[in-house]
Amino acid sequence: MLNILKSFNVNNLTLKNRLVMSPMCMYSASEEGFIEDFHITHYATRAYGGVGTILVEANAVLPEGRITENDLGIWNDKHIAGHTKLVRCIEEGGAVAGIQLAHAGRKAEVRSNIYAPSPIRYSKDYKIPIELTKEDIKNLVKNFKSAFIRAKKCGYKIMEIHAAHGYLLNEFLSPLTNKREDEYGYKSYENRFRLIGEIISEIRNCDDRTPLLIRFSASDYAEGGYTIKDTVIFAKMAKEFGVNIVDVSSGGVVEEQKLNVYPGYQVDFAKAIKEEVDIPTIAVGLITTLEQTEQILGSGYASLVAMGRNLLRYPYFLINKIKEYDVELAENYYPKQYLRSFEIR
């Protein structure tokens, strides 16, 4: 059997295969953050296409935490109905539905005030953020917990905390964006991770079984920023607090980053965290072929493989590609409505 088709168990949940759809913002929500018809079609299509786990794009835990005014939200109980329908459609397609909980921090492009660990703007085109007070931070932890509880009510089986790509939680981790002198400041790993640890603790206090992922940027790609060595330390902390899987990306915290992009360019980061922390990881980054997934999984570099843009281009990527291999699958692996096209009846 192909490695990508092997099931994967995390806590009490079985994923039917090792292919994950990366959370990618579609900027297609209403201005109030509600699910639209587009989202139902978009995500359900990839589920019917064979993806084992769908991670729904970043959902803001506060309205000012959206990247844009057209990002999805889960800060209000009114959002539950739309997400519940979305989860049902994803599951009907045969995939596990997960959601990414997020706050954009200083990279928010909304009309309201924006917030960050320190009042340093991302670039000249962005607002100067307001520095979060300790009371703001306390409320933020509650907002993440409330968003988690809402997501559970919607039926999501996996939750991911977004601590990558230069958004708020990533900003606390990086010494390039965190200049605080208090207990959330840049002077120690413990301080930089403190907010994330508090969020995980609040979530685990109310639910210790739901698989919890965290997405890290493994490197800032900038002088004075953090590297994979630092991320390994943060990943160890995340595991101790109760995270089950680390989703490994990179970059995004500063505009002037310097990186070399090539197929699979982030896989070594996932490998390092998996080996040094002894925790399952998700590899991502210009992974576009089954040959790549087989090499990554077969070599043990990561536990799961995520695709982003490739699944935007080819929503039926997996069920189309596996027909090129001598692999027998149960008929229910394919959308029953499309069985004729796969010549298996």
Describe the structure.
By secondary structure, the chain is α/β, with parallel strands linked by helices. The chain contains eleven helices and twelve strands. It has helices at residues 37-48, 80-92, 134-154, 168-173, 189-206, 228-241, 267-277, 290-298, 309-313, 317-321, 339-342, and strands at residues 8-10, 13-15, 19-21, 53-60, 96-102, 115-116, 130-131, 158-163, 212-217, 245-249, 281-283, 304-307. The chain has an eight-stranded parallel β-barrel with strand order 3-4-5-8-9-10-11-12, surrounded by six helices. The protein has a two-stranded antiparallel sheet with strand order 1-2. Strands 6-7 form a two-stranded parallel ribbon. Strand 9, helix 6 (228-241) and strand 10 (245-249) form a beta-alpha-beta unit. Helix 1 packs parallel to helix 2 (80-92), helix 2 crosses helix 3 and helix 6 crosses helix 7 (267-277). The model has no long low-confidence stretch (mean pLDDT 96).
List key phrases describing it.
globular; single chain; 345 residues; alpha/beta; 11 helices
